[in-house]
Amino acid sequence: MKLNLRTFLVLIVLLSLSFSSTSCAAPKSPIRIAISAWAGVEPAELAAQLGYYEKHGVEVEMVRFSAYSDSIQALVDEKVDAGMHTLDDAIRYSSSGNDSRVVLLTDYSFGGDGLVARPGIETLADLKGAKIGVEIGTVGHLSLLKILEIGGLTTDDVTIVSIPAWEIQQSMLEGKIDAGATWEPYLTSTAEMMGGKVLITSRDYPETIITTMTFNARVVDERPEDVQKVVAAYFDAVEYIKQNPQDAYQRMGQAEGVSTEEFEAHVAGIQYLDLTSNLDLFGADNQGRAYVQTNTIAQFLFDQGVITSVPDIEKLLEPDFIKELGK
Known about the structure:
This protein is of the alpha/beta class. The protein has 2 domains: 31-109 and 208-325, Periplasmic binding protein-like II (D-Maltodextrin-Binding Protein, domain 2, 3-Layer(aba) Sandwich); 113-204, D-Maltodextrin-Binding Protein, domain 2. It has 16 helices and 11 strands. It has helices at residues 2-23, 43-49, 52-56, 68-76, 87-95, 139-150, 168-173, 186-194, 217-222, 224-243, 245-256, 260-267, 275-282, 289-303, 313-316, 320-325; strands spanning 31-35, 60-64, 82-86, 100-109, 113-117, 131-134, 159-162, 179-183, 197-201, 210-216, 270-272. Helix 11 (245-256) crosses helix 12 (260-267). The longest helix is centred in the first third of the chain and has 22 residues, at 2-23. 43% of the residues are buried. The model is unreliable at 17-25 (pLDDT under 50).
């Protein structure tokens, strides 16, 4: 009897330790996602506002940056787990040794970027001999090359002047350049201020300027179930936009500190990418247009000396999470 009692007590102690160990296990930290003002990535914020992350069983903390470059640095420094960044930037920091995974594509520019010209330049052909401002080594530069090709021109027909996109307007007003590659609202406002013309927009070269949700590879490896839940919640938010656009615009605009009307105007220049669009762009067996475009951008950045090596594109793009939802 004494032996049985001793055995019973030992079992009680072992069970107590087991329960104590379970209850004291450190809770998982929230998935931290860096975001800055851009209409195309705000569904990630909308998912938080609507409680979609909680619905899928994952805790998410949206970390908002006023400067886009700071959000990139936060991901590079691993102060956040993911970032809402353009595809070309994902390529840049992947190439520099920061192991990353693009788990979904949020949007592509569809009229929000383009080329504005001074009075007297009415067509792309009129650009021959013109000075064109663009930030060299960016996807805007790649877009300009596409624009020249559409117009039947080459870089030998124009003079390309390296200017940050946000300085294009002032440079045109000062007469330093004849045309410039920039984005809205500067695109339209520059044309209006100068009496000039927007010659072409990204509606004529879609799927060139693409934004992504990019994760630190370590988080993808260690917490794939949570990443899957984040991706599912994101696409829930995209569907909400389709069904309730005005409420969605109001919520997302408020997050950016702009009116519903202003946010809606920004949306007019992009194309949101839902789950179906992502599946189409990634394609089957890593053969979709997303791979082609990523290779094109990476090779362009390499040729321009922006990156010193082309990253492994099939490693950078991680379509498994969207494919799981598409089953």
